[in-house]
Amino acid sequence: MMDGIDENNTGENKRSKPSVRARADAVKPFVCKNLIAVIEDPTNIKNIGTVIRNVNALGVEKVYIVDPRKALPDDWQDMREKKSLSKTSVSAVKWSFVKRFDSTEDCLNHLERKNFHSVVTSPHVKGMTNVYLHEGEYTEHAKLAVWFGNEKRGISDLAVERSDMCVAIPMFGMIESLNLGTSSGIVLYEITKQRREYQSKYRKRDKRGERANPLPTVLT
Predict the structure, then answer these.
(1) Domains, the chain, with CATH or none
(2) Among 107, 44, 53, which Cα is nearest to 72's?
(3) What pLDDT tens digit does each residue of the chain (220 aa) get?
(4) With helix as H, strand as E and coil as C, how does the chain read?
(5) What is the rounded CA–CA span in Å between residue 143 and residue 141?
């Protein structure tokens, strides 16, 4: 048990309503606004749950799932009540906004209509802007979507073509790949850290609206 959360029982039933409400109020200022994690065509429900857990823990605002097999319900409330997702995400799905799309194109069109810029997690792609995770700048755009590809095939060509850049995690061992849950945690940690530091100092893009007193970046 950590921080009052029993992982075998999700902790949700262990907390009173006032304590849950207090926690929700406490973490609200730390959420990275207009930051969306996109999972493209995942095949393993456990991986979806792990990514949703990472998203919630790190303060990402929303999760979009490209689900051409229609394995997940369309309705958010139905998704929250799906036992397989609730169990693998340790109930994070109950506290996270999750939206599904039938295709990559549908998801991209939706994001672009709302003026989101996309970056994809992918090794070096010829003709694209390629950066290592720690070298990337993730506060340039007010609205950002971070894409994670299929466990076996990786990110699609269409998502790459319509993204601003490809982001790779540096690898220093004999194994040159990480599973979806691990890679999403590493990537989203760096991106949320940068965006929280930025929104702590400025109210708007382009370093406008500098705050007289910076907001805290760590919940104490």
Answers:
(1) 32-201 (3.40.1280.10)
(2) 44
(3) 334 444 444 444 455 677 887 877 888 888 999 999 999 999 998 999 999 999 999 999 999 999 999 989 888 778 888 888 888 887 888 889 999 999 999 999 999 999 999 999 998 898 999 999 999 999 999 999 999 999 889 999 999 999 999 999 999 999 888 999 999 999 999 999 999 988 777 666 666 677 766 666 766 6
(4) CECCECCCCCCHHHCCHHHHHHHHHHHHHHCEEEEEEEEECCCCHHHHHHHHHHHHHHCEEEEEEECCCCCCCCCHHHHHCCHHHHHHCCCHHHHCEEEEECCHHHHHHHHHHCCCEEEEECCCCCCCCEEEHHHCCCCCCCCEEEEECECCCECCHHHHHCCCEEEECCCCCCCCCCCHHHHHHHHHHHHHHHHHHHHHHECCCCCCCECCCCCCCCCC
(5) 5
